[in-house]
Predict the 3D structure of the following.
Amino acid sequence: MQLELQITTYLIAILYQLFGYHYALARIVPVLFFMGSAFFLYRIGRLYFPERTALFAVALYGVLPLNILYSRAIMPESAALFFMLGAFVFFTLWIRRDRLLLLLLAGLFTGVVAAEKIPTLFIGIPMLAMTMAKYKLRMLWKRELWLFAFLALVLPLLYFGWLGTVAESAFVSGIASKHVLAGDVQRDRDAGSLAVLLSRASFCIYLGRADPCPVGASAAEVAGSLPDRRLGRCDDRGAGHGGGRHQVRLLSDPDQSGRCPARGCSALRSVRRPSGPDRSSGASAGGLRKQLPQHSSDVRFPAYGADPAGELVQQATDKQDLIVVGTPDPALLNASHRRGWRVANALPDNPVAELNSYIGQGAKYFVPLKGYIYGDDGSFRQYLDSHYDKIDFGEGYFIYKLKAG
């Protein structure tokens, strides 16, 4: 998406220029960003908790299904996590050491991540809280904080302003304010929206103290009743809390697969608190190792790499051929190791005109996924059958040849 600062894809393009087209290079970039984010997470753990707790957090961070998915996806999430956690580390170190270089790095990382993914700006809330706790109103007169604000906020605003002048589609210019926020406001006005939220979303937020006093709460339970109450009691086992410090430990939604569902809170009960004087410094991961896969195994994403469609396309086409796929996501393009376009992107209401525009740009084949074409009521497939030759592989797999040669 053009709205997001294209750090990941730009680095991939550089690698392709240097070493040629190798799909593994594209995967390496987000993986390295994710590894960097794991390092910053460890640093955060070491800044606030004992080392064993930090290591446990990194281990859990690395095995969550959603992280496994996004850590190797050619998307901005890994880079956003890297810069967001890095910004928090550098800012925390500045609060403790008062070195200008650390604050400049924090501002630069915050500015980059704001241009990468706008919601990551929420990391500014704990930064503001730390600043107010240390300087109170004196923070308004600290010139270096204004420099931080410039790097963190003004530079992304300049980027978004420039983006509006070069975007090929009006949709990506001001997407958050014009589309996402407007849609959220409209849904909030709907009386049924809250009922849907409360019936589908469960949250597990619990506060840790020296003497654990966990509180499990479900939004649906607060509002009334939920037939399937999947939120178990959340025990603060090995969470690594400090004496008297309240910490928000876990926030999860059972209907967002792979995000450690709220019912997985019950898995935490089988993690045993260590004995001895350092009771908060670590935990055995045995319970989580056994139960986390069970509770987080509902991850659903296209696995076209295991589908023969990609291999069939490779057999029937040349490496330099451009294709159009009948799926709304790029997974089939990736599995085919071909460049091209996805259906229903440019002109979703006029697939024929959209296809003709792709043909004009060099597309040679149209590739449904075993006959499936996203958004088609049957008329577009009839058009393809009547206008283009079909290469039939059998068992429901076929592609259309859009150009001769």
